[in-house]
Amino acid sequence: MQQHIPRHSRYGIVPPYILYSIANRGTRTQRQHALRALQVALSTHPTRQAAGRRRSIQRTQSPTPRRTIYDAHHSGRLPGKIVRKEGQAIGSDSATNEAYDGLGWSYRLYQQKFGRNSIDNQGQTLKATVHYSSDYNNAFWDERSKRVVFGDGDGDLFRRFTVAIEVIGHELTHGITAYEADLDYKGQSGALNESISDVFGSLIKQFSRGQTADQADWLIGEGLFTHKVQGVALRSLKAPGTAYNDPILGQDPQPATMDGYIEIEDDDGGVHTNSGIPNHAFYLVATALGGYAWEKAGHIWYKAMTDSAMGPQTTFKDFANLTLKQAERLQGDEGKEREAVQQAWEAVKVLPHKHTSNEESAAD
Ligand SMILES: [Zn+2]
Asked: Which ipTM value was assigned to this complex?
């Protein structure tokens, strides 16, 4: 199998356009913090993937998580010192406890609902580093060391990044996507990569709260902003483009349909922007089918993202077709799944309108 070397090894939750906006419009200190957080958003260390995909259906041991949390003590060096290992009692540090719990919920959703045993499906240890750097306004997946890294935020615009469990789930999912699909972090395939992380990040939050699709907030990064920022989160799957509108951070630029698809060079070709389109498709499927989103919509998406047809250049349309294939396999008694998936991708204009409703009965 051909080896693919991704250009990116770090995947930040805060997109570069927000950090550029802060750097341009903020105070001197805000600018310094934004530039520090940008270093990750722009990091381009090449890494080498493990050769090919190793799909293991082995279940060697009882499937429980193995977590190790490290503390960088405000330095920019990884991994930091071990502060909590699997099974150790809760301590006094909130970031450590939130990272530990968030990795636990992430593990349990993937294991209990999709039968996946950790990142590599072979029980790999889940690693996180907290208190990375100082006044650090980002969290990221580090593909080289296979760990999630959290800043504390500067307390001025951003709070500590472990407060949002969907951020933990988002970053961990980058590890799974790199392992399974190897999507190029550029253009549509990159936006699909981002969207998969948002979708499963949100599902992990919903799972941890026992929420149905109707009850969920569908936000990514809820609670990260301080009261100074006019916004509720970094992104919204329910209503892309509405998460924030702030004099310093700028306005949420996400489109909900292909009509708003943007062709740009920045942000690796708009990976954090155009991800709004498949994000919204997932939201539409989940709410159309109702109940817990991970049961049907999440199942369809998981099967699609781990399909062997996924590759570096997978487009939105390719992915839409994979979800249709999986929806057909899942098809329940009423056959609603395929219809919901078809309609969602049509609604966001990734797939063309195929059919007019034949249920237009004589209305009175
Ligand atoms: Zn991401």
From this structure: 1.00
